[in-house]
Structures are given as C-alpha cells and as structure tokens.
Amino acid sequence: MTVRTTTPPRRAFDHRMTAPGTDEAFLAAALPFLAEGLAAADEPPPVAIVAPAKVDALRDALGSDAEAVTLVPHTDWYTGSAANAVARAAGHLATHAGPDGRVHLLMEPVWNGRAGRSPRESAEWLRYEALANLLFAHTSTTALCVYDTRTTAPDLVAAARRTHPDSGAYEDPLRLAAELDAVPLPRPPADARHLPAPTTDAVRSWAAGQGLGAADAELFAQAVTEAASLAPVTSTLLWGEAPACVCELRLSDRLDDPLAGFVPPPSVTPSPGQGLWFTRQVCSYVDLRPTREGTAVRLQYG
Q1: CB of 209 within 8 A of CB of 221?
Q2: Matching Pfam families, A to Z (predicted)?
Q3: With contact defined as beta carbons under 8 Å apart, do 284 and 223 qualify?
C-alpha cells in the first residue's frame, strides 16, 4: 500500500481530546468546553454526547444552562459501526450546525461497548478518529472527545492521543491508517465455505443457515454484494456463526484509498467505488488489504 502523508492546510476542524479518570476531572474539562460553545457567535447550542451517568452529572453542574445544551446519552448516538458514526456526525452537521458546520460537540465513544469489543473493531474506531481529521477538515466544527480512563484501556487511550492534534502525540492520519492495516489478518478457517460468486441469494441463504435472522441475513448479503461491486471478484469465502458472520472477497483490482467507504456519497445512489459506504454502515468492521493480485476485502457482520 502506498502511504500518502499529509500536511493539512490551516485547520478549521478543531479536534480535541480529554482523558479524565474521575467525575471531577470530566466536569473540569467539559464545563469550560460547553461554556465556550454557548458563547460562540453564529453557533447553535452545544451538544454533549456522553455516558448516561455523565449526562446527569452535566445537567446538575450546568444548572440553568442545562436547558441551552443538548444532552444525549452516547448509547443513543453510537449505535453501529465507526462509519455509522461518521454518517451520524455528517448528518447532524448538515441539519443542525451553524455556518460552515460551526458547533461544539462533546463526544464520548462507547469504548466499553462495541467500539472496544475486539482488536479489529477497536482498530476500526481508531481509524475513524484519525480519518476524522481529514473527513471533517472542511468544517468549522469544534469537537472534544472524552476517553474515560475508567472504561477505556490504557493502550486505547495512548492510541487515541495519536489521532488528536492537541494531544502532543498526533501523527499523520494516513500513516496511522497504514499502520493499522499492517497488522496481519488471521487466516480464514480451513472449513470456510467457498462460493462460486457472491450473489445476494447465495450469501443470504448461507447467513440464514448460520443463524442470522431474515432481516440480518438480508443486510449481510447486501453488504457483501455492495463490496463485490467495487471490482471483479476472483474468490469468495464465508465463515462464522451468528451474529459474527464473516466474508472475505478477493478483487482483481487494487484499491488502496484509506478513505474508501468513509466519505458520504453525494446522492442516495452511490456511484462506482462507493459501495463500501453501505458496507461500512452495516458491518462491525471492514478490512481492505492490497495484495499482489489485487485487494482482499474482509467484512464482519454483527
């Protein structure tokens, strides 16, 4: 994979991080941030997307200002994959932010939930944090990401510092994405099912046989066929049982864009090369690995 390094132009997107270990430390970081948002010109009220207990703590600490801040339990916001979080943020900016995306967002990913469930899913969320610096670079959004050290592993906090420009440990997002991709994928199991072609019917039937319900089997089949639309498929492997069904596609073309599938399509009908947008929304993680023959795409549903 060819690594493109970036020297971002003057940054409009202000991507900050705090790593509190107590309720008091959280409030010491959150309250001035929200006050900054309340005082900012040409901005709607700030939004705090944090753990339910922190919502209550903020409401108490803000007093009368609580009515001017949108408080959202993070379990209501982070309900899917990392790419789903990109879509949720982009949608919120498009419909609720001020000019140029101006809004203050206090954001706490659910690291003791889906985001930290497995090394691959954690890597997908770290990729999201890194690529956010590019995906939202055109906005004037101010975000403060909360990494509570009581619920987030120390290695994840250290890795997150590499994705936030104010941390003192920031690294180029594309270089960090390439580093995540350099971790070898486990080999497919010997009993993985080979399909002649990744048709919707064949994938749906297999997934249902592995225990996925009808709606989930349909979504998994759509995710696979969307990924398969990127280039001619030379091999299809399926393995796992519900809810963690896995598909690995081998494509004849080389796809090495680290932003693939994270950039929202301009219309409801994705153009060629944007099928991964749907796939990333549906799956818990998606790996793209350039190979000598083309590209390996491995996706996990559930």
Answers
A1: no
A2: MEDS
A3: no
Q: Which residue has the tokens 């319900």?
A: 213
3-state secondary structure (DSSP) of residue 274? coil
- Gap between the Cα atoms of 160 and 137, Å rounded: 18
E strand intervals along 155-264 = 193-194, 233-239, 245-251
Residue 17's DSSP bridge partners are 145
* Residues in the chain, overall count: 302
- Give all strands of the β-sheet with 14-18 in edge-to-edge order: 14-18, 142-146, 104-107, 47-50, 70-73
- Residues 165-218 have pLDDT tens digits of 999 999 999 999 999 888 888 999 999 999 999 999 999 999 999 999 999 999
Which of helix, strand or coil describes residue 289?
strand
Helix (H) or strand (E) holding 49: strand 47-50
Q: What is the pTM of this model?
A: 0.86
Amino acid found at 177: A
Phi/psi of residue 67, each to 5°? -70, -20
DSSP state of 45: P
In angstroms, the Cα distances linking 227 to 175, 222, 273, 286 are 24, 9, 9, 10
